[in-house]
Specification:
By secondary structure, the protein is an alpha+beta fold. It is built from six helices and four strands. It is globular.
Length: about 170
């Protein structure tokens, strides 16, 4: 369990980190550098020096996010927000050539639960919007999110990846 103490009001906030290493990458990894947006309030310099990282390609990261939204055993509103946000603000096009095949391959990985966009699952998501999403977003980001739109995007992806359709 990791946490940090807020400089603004002193409360301790947990940080969730999720790491999955159960299968090999399906696309080339990216070499890059990570840096913090946290600045020293006195000198204005970054609190942490830039450091090298290896990351998934954008397409593979989005395929992982789609798989999580469709198949995670404990449904998480953050997955649906992330897909919706990527479509609206980051140029993510789920109909892009090759993306459906990448998702199809992710869904075929052993021990991946079947996709589930049932009414019961959507009901669980609806209950998470105010309880789990609102507290971690700025008001403008929260207002822009539309669960029905996110579900529709994921349903379209699910239709595109059904075996035998292509």
């Amino acid at each position: 369990m990791l946490s940090y103490e807020s400089l603004a009001d002193g409360h301790v906030e947990p940080v969730s980190i999720e790491v999955g290493v159960r299968e090999p990458n399906m696309t080339e990894v990216l070499q890059g550098a990570a840096r913090t947006v946290l600045l020293n309030p006195i000198g204005g310099r970054a609190l942490v020096d830039t450091y090298p990282v290896v990351a998934l390609s954008y397409a593979e990261a989005m395929a992982e996010k789609v798989r999580a939204a469709l198949c995670r055993s404990e449904v998480a509103i953050r997955d649906f927000f992330d897909v919706d946000h990527a479509v609206r603000n980051a140029g993510f096009d789920p109909a892009r050539a090759g993306f459906a095949d990448l998702v199809r391959r992710k869904l075929a990985i052993p021990r991946t639960p079947p996709p589930d966009l049932s009414d019961a699952r959507i009901g669980q998501l609806e209950r998470q919007v105010d309880a789990q999403l609102r507290p971690v977003l700025r008001e403008q980001e929260f207002r822009q999110f539309n669960l029905a739109r996110a579900v529709e995007t994921l349903r379209q992806i699910q239709l595109a990846v059904r075996p035998g359709d292509h």
